Amino acid sequence: MGQINRRKIMLGAAAVMMASLSGFTCAWSASDVNLSLMIWDPAQKAGVQKAVDAFVVANPNIKVSLIQVPPDQYYTKLDASLGAGEGPDVMWQSSKASYYIDGGALEPLTSYIKKAGLSLDGYNKKIVDLYNIGGEQYGIPKDMDAWMFVYNAATFKKLGVEAPKPDWTWDDMVRIATELKAKQTANDVPLYYNFSFNNGVSSLVHALGGKVIDNNKGSMSSAPGIKALEMVKSLQDDGLILKVSDSSDFNPVTSLISGKLAMGEIPSWNLSVLSKADLPSGTLQVVRMPSVNGSWTTDTNGLVYVMNVNTKHKDASWELIKFLTSEQGGVLHAEGGAGLPANNSKATLGAFVKANEKLDGLEQALSVTIDKSYLRTTTQFPKIITSNSKIASAVMGPFYAGTVSAADTAKKIDETLNEALR
Amino acid sequence: MTGASAARPSKTELEPSRRKLRLGGLRWRQAWAGYLFLVPLVAGLIVFRFYAFGYNVWLSFTKAGAFGPPRFVGLDNYRRLVSDSQLVVALYNTVKFAAIAVPGVIILALLCALLMQYRFRGESVFRAIVFLPAVCLPTAIILVFGWMFQTQYGLINAAIHAVGASPVSWFGSESGVTVIVSMIVVYLSFSVPAIILYAGMQDIPSDVYEAAMLDGAGPVRRFFSITLSLLTPSLFFVILTTTIGILKLFDTVYLLLPPVEHSVSTNYGLTLVYYYYYLAFVDAGQRGYAAAVSLFLLLLILGVSFVLLRLQRRFVHYGEDG
Fold first, then answer.
1. Per-residue pLDDT tens for A361-414?
2. Is residue B3 part of a domain?
3. Smallest Cβ distance to B152: which of A250, A382, A400?
4. Residues 181 to 200 of A: which have CB under 8 A from any B CB?
5. Of A110, A116, A137, B75, most Cβ neighbours within 10 A?
6. Share of residues in chain B with pLDDT > 70 (%)
7. What is the CATH number of the domain that holds A292?
């Protein structure tokens, strides 16, 4: 009797399982599509989720799982999953995209773009071109970078120092920083200028009319290259920025919020952190980079949405990419506050400015910055990513320590770049 | 000793049991069950050790990018090893940290093991303090040390400032990084060696000490002539494992000097494993070369182990049975 009962129970349970499974399969396969979207930046998750939610409302038969992977694990996880022929349907890509294109992991989007009649004129051209490889477009731009100056108006007011003006120059910056230094306490910092070769130094080279790499060779030994190195080092030697050797654990964003730092060069991806700080509106103000000989510039990089070549839902994935990079998607994303949209429409830029409205002067600074950007050296030449780390530590370290001259440093940078570019 | 040999079973007594243990003597089902129990371990070894090692060796002969199939390039990666100035920096730092931290660990562990021999008030607390680093999360310890030595807001610089001296740029100089990294490595590594050495001291017969005391040997003489001599097997084991552990140093330098591209301090703490990690996981298109770097580290560890094993014959005393 016991045997029969147990068998009946087992059969019944199996029947229920089969029924529920078949019911689930039917419901799932009938019309619904489940897409996965992988990103890395926690600051942008809210904005992306907002855009995804709107997409799901507009496309009720498509469900989207947004996965935010910690930045330092993103590519490791991506490599493992894509290498196994799986991975997310849609994902972010950076200048490393060329490796994934070579490996055949990304779906070319050119035919989808043509079929949808999508014009790429509405996006930042530099970012569009970056992901056009072998005549195929592999990604639709989602955001871009720009560097601006942010200053703490409360600190300036307290010290009685005239704040930077929207049309300020390098000499103005040095003069203001010198005044601040004279009035600040010894623990405070007047200025943060990005001293790295890849950002602060290189953008100064471009502003001075030079190039870091010319004809596929390092050209830091040119007059603008050496001049740029000397200009940044003199900021350190005059005590206007922290000694570079002491800067490895210095955070300019939190220091601006606390008032320890009076003004600093800040990338667009950190603006949302500043605007969310618990400070009265208008405390933090934004101006463009100071001009040198009437010119200023900022390096840029941009991310794109790309499609997994092995996705089973190519049309749905394309619809998601199209929506997220559209004006509507860009506005919703920008409302999250992080990620300067690469969609050039006034609405997306307006949404970004509005989301960061506590930062006075942001709209004006952005309007004169975006068009002045150049592709970051490591973005334009991914081959030099390794040598960039070597330059930062083994070449720039001794230069800022004062043991190597600017001319010799420029020569060493060129040698390192040429070795990588070969 | 005579008693011990008398207690040993004779060769003829052992024969039946040995026969039983032979495969042929067991029924197949019993043997099968035994092999089945071995499968998880062997499978784990094959997949995660042997296959991974073989794949890594193969990878070292290829140009393997961030993604996509590796391309065979022969000995190119090994030729690059010879001319890579960053590898020289990483090798120098690795050897430097090992040269400072290994003696530090041994001396501290020996001192703690000696103190644990004595009965005193608060000995339990002392033992807990000794073992604390072994049970604490290394990441937490490293980060706490990092905050303590932070240039702007750190506790150490605040104390230095309070006594009127100038703050020290701990992470901005090679000497500063060397001091902090060595200190953390010693602190994180001395607990288990201390326990091993303490256990080794328990095996030293008390009658040897009694005889030495009757001969008029003082505590210092007893330590150097008896404790240290009879402790050499444990000491050798501790030196070997600590050296290998420190040659593979990664977590401390990675957490103190994270791979941000504009840091001028990275080269002060760049070790071979950190360099490998940077090439394989931070950088793009360097996995083949990273594999060659990892095999270079393997050769270094094999070389150091070989030297230590040779020295063992001369300096390690295993007693009459050994």
1. 999 999 999 888 899 998 888 888 878 888 988 899 889 989 999 999 999 999
2. no
3. A250
4. 187, 194-199
5. A137
6. 89
7. 3.40.190.10
Tokens 């590519």 belong to which residue?
Answer: A75
- The pLDDT assigned to A387 comes to 83
A119 and A228, same domain (yes or no) = no
Domain shared by B18 and B133, yes or no: no
Q: Does A401 lie in the same domain as A310? A: no
Is there a contact between A228 and A208 (Cβ–Cβ < 8 Å)? yes
User: How many independent structural domains does chain B possess?
Assistant: 2
Using the Cβ of B265 and the Cβ atoms of chain A, whether some distance falls under 8 Å is answered with yes
Contacts of B181 in chain A (CB under 8 A): none
Interface with chain B: mutation pick from A76, A246, A387, highest number of B CBs within 10 Å: A246
Distance, in angstroms, between A381 CA and closest chain B CA?
Answer: 12
Residue A298 to residues A70, A284, A365, B177, Cα–Cα distance (Å): 27, 20, 12, 33
The residue in chain B having the minimum alpha-carbon distance to the alpha carbon of residue A199 is B262
Give the pLDDT confidence score for residue B65 in this predicted structure.
74
Going by C-alpha positions, the residue among B109, B314, B283 that lies closest to residue B199 is: B109
* B234 and B161 co-located in one domain: yes
Q: Collect all residues with Cβ–Cβ distance below 8 Å to B56 and sequence separation of at least 6.
A: B291, B294, B295
Question: Residue A184 is part of which domain span?
Answer: 147-300+361-421
Reported ipTM: the value is: 0.73
**B86 and B14: one domain?**
no
Rounded-to-integer distance, Cα A257 and Cα A161, Å: 18
Residue A25 lies in a domain: no
- For B283, the closest chain A residue by CA position comes to A386
